[in-house]
Amino acid sequence: MRIDIISIFPQFFDCLDVSLMGKARGSGILQTHIWDLRDWTQDVHRTVDRAPAGGGAGMVMKPDVWGKAIDQVIDQAGAAKTVLAIPTPSGIPLTQRQVRDLAENAEHLVVACGRYEGIDQRVSQYYQQQPGVAVLPFSLGDYVLNGGEVAAVALIEATCRLLDGFVGNPGSLVEESYELSGLLEYPAYTQPATWRDLEIPPVLLSGDHQKVKDWRRQQSLMLTAARRPDLIWDLAPDALEKSDREILAAHGFLPAPYSRQVRFRRAQPGEAATCSAIASRLFPQACPDYLPEDAIARFVAEELSEQAFKAYLADPGTLIILAEVAPGEKNKEETSWETAGYTLINAGAPGFLPPEENLVQAAGENCAYLSKCYLDQRWRSSGLAGAMLEVSHAQLQALFPHITKIGLGTNQANRRALKFYRHHGYRKCGRRTFMVGGIENQDLIAVRDFTARQVPSWAQNVAQ
Ligand code: SAM
Questions:
Q1: Which of 63, 190, 197, 304 would you label with 216, given CA atoms 20 to 30 Å apart?
Q2: pLDDT tens for each residue of 126-157
Q3: 2-174: what fold?
Q4: Is there an atom of ligand 1 within 6 Å of 118 CB?
């Protein structure tokens, strides 16, 4: 690749002789030419700027001087296609995608480094109209530098390190921030294992490659969610696994194709009506086909009434977590969040557990009961169900540290639910009969042991 840099401070680019850039220049991967713009002036003062047309502070760089310089370097390079990069704070923010495109496709790059108030607009306008020239006005970020030189170095270094043969191990480029995954890179650590009382996360020293890979993926997702939510909204739907979606949901995001914000919170004592409404709406969605409507309606009226939820909310051993979805990715209006699902867990004395479920015998004293876990089917496959379940587990443990297990009963014909709970560490340990409006249903009982399968760290401290 040939790069021509034009600036009134050519000495600025001595830095390109350093490190890998210097090596690449020496090896012929890269041909760089650095030009002093003043060499194209004709007056004794070597003037490159004039007062702005229309008045105002500062000076503007003259188009006639720039035109001569750019024409000459384009002619000299003789490339079929030139990219004329013009650093400017009003340019398009520079991205990895853009520099990769340059590295893969540009044969000749000219960087025109402005100073003062910038370069007369007609320079950009003129070259946009020239065949064989593409103009790239780019910005390093939302701040103002004194000149385009720093931006030029950034553009050149980011582009050139992607050229074939530039780095020794091209594999090191693939996992980086903004690359294939579209996420920020996970944090890196090295020896010593303990430094100033800070440890390397133990998983990185475990030697278990799959666990290391999973941990890094999780860190990337959480870091991106915290620092660059814009990148999360831009992710392609097929870039995410179910487990990725669960982590992102726990951190407030249902990425495309859902494109919604989500949050989790503990239901408050005054919210019995809200809880009853969502429970009554979601229960019929989860019922097997054979259950008649009137039986479902009876169950809803008896078990999911406002009165029933008043009692749950008044019980210190009962925990209700609501999952709420915002109307759109940008909308943060408090009032318009919609309840998408909920869990209800009883962590009270084991005697409270329905005796016919035999959960106490099956699971032991410190077993909580996941009485309800429902999500609106609109959000199926969004990761929200898994996130809601793990966030509820985490809340349960935070509020009731003595709890080591949690059990549930679910209809034995509900394969989808059984698979979901198995995936989340629940293991079958019994059966029960569950009545819905006077009709018997056969349930399987399953228990998750938190000592065997810990609540994931991504689900901790999430619910408000
Ligand atoms: N008056 C200009 C404005 O407010 O947009 C700022 C001019 S700045 C002082 C001078 C030169 O620095 C620009 O022409 C451009 O080459 C460079 N520059 C400043 N900030 C930049 C940024 N964020 N990205 C790229 N180039 C920048």
A1: 197
A2: 999 999 999 999 999 999 999 999 999 999 99
A3: Alpha/beta knot (3.40.1280)
A4: yes
